[in-house]
Amino acid sequence: MKTPNKNDSENCSKCTEYKDEIDKLEKRLTEIQKIASRDSLTGLLNRDGFIERAKRIFIFAGQAQTEKERRETLVERKELSVLFIDLDNLKPLNDTHGHGTGDAVLIEVGKALKAQIRQVDLASRLGGDEFMVLLYDADKDIGEKVVTKIHKKLEEPVTINGVEIKVEVSCGVASTSEGFNNVEDIMKLADERMYEVKKEKKGMQ
Q1: What is the domain range of residue 29?
Q2: What backbone phi and psi angles, to 5 degrees, belong to 106?
């Protein structure tokens, strides 16, 4: 049997040090990845973070599989709905009250969205004045009901820097229950429907 010597002890000590350094680096990398997937202003997921997680949810919900694959893996299919939300009056608010107020409005919208969804759902600021929500186990009818709740919440005026502000939004809803099982396609449809709502509003003015 080999007797441990000084070099063996030193090697073991170095191995422990290396492992500690690797653990710290991995932890830091995880933190950086988490930050990279978040919108710095609202704390919501950014576009890349949203798409990455949405793709995972589509698989988990059995939406990215064929009927045969679902039967073989015993995955129960869950319907998913996507809400595309665009602020109608952010530019006028920025022009009138300044970008600081506009940023505060975006933060309030982010809070309102998070307050109207569950932990299993996703909320994202895609960029600018565009937001998106993914609802788990929710068909289009449920999606429409959540949109109504969001509208009702945002109709409540908020006071920012001493100014009472009412946020106006347009929302589009698309669901896997309509035959879509691809993240990009359902996001595109929700986007198109949001613009249809926006056009209807302009036509009524």
Answers
A1: 1-36
A2: -60, -40
Both 90 and 148 in a single domain?
yes
- Residue pair 95/153 in contact (Cβ under 8 Å)? The answer is no
CATH, residue 72: 3.30.70.270
Q: Enumerate the β-bridge partners of residue 80.
A: 136
Q: For 76-87, how does the pLDDT look when each residue is reduced to its tens digit (9 = 90+)?
A: 788 999 999 999
Q: What is the mean pLDDT of residues 101-124?
A: 93
> Residue 62: what pLDDT?
79
Residues 73 and 51 in one domain: yes
What type of residue sits at position 68?
Answer: K
19-62 tens-digit pLDDT: 665 555 455 544 544 556 899 999 999 999 999 999 999 888 87
Return the closest-CA partner of residue 83 out of 193, 199, 196: 193
- pLDDT bin (cut points 50, 70, 90) of residue 142 is very high
148 plus 102 within the same structural domain: yes
CB 80 within 8 A of CB 57: yes
Domain count, the chain: 2
CA neighbor of 124 nearest in space, from 51, 205, 204, 24: 51
Beta strands in 19-70 (DSSP E): none
- 0.70 surpassed by pTM: yes
The pair of three-digit structure tokens given for residue 39, joined into one six-digit string? 């919108």
Nearest residue to 188 via CA among 113, 99, 84, 50? 84
Asked whether residue 96 is domain-assigned, the answer is: yes
DSSP H or E segment with residue 81: strand 80-87
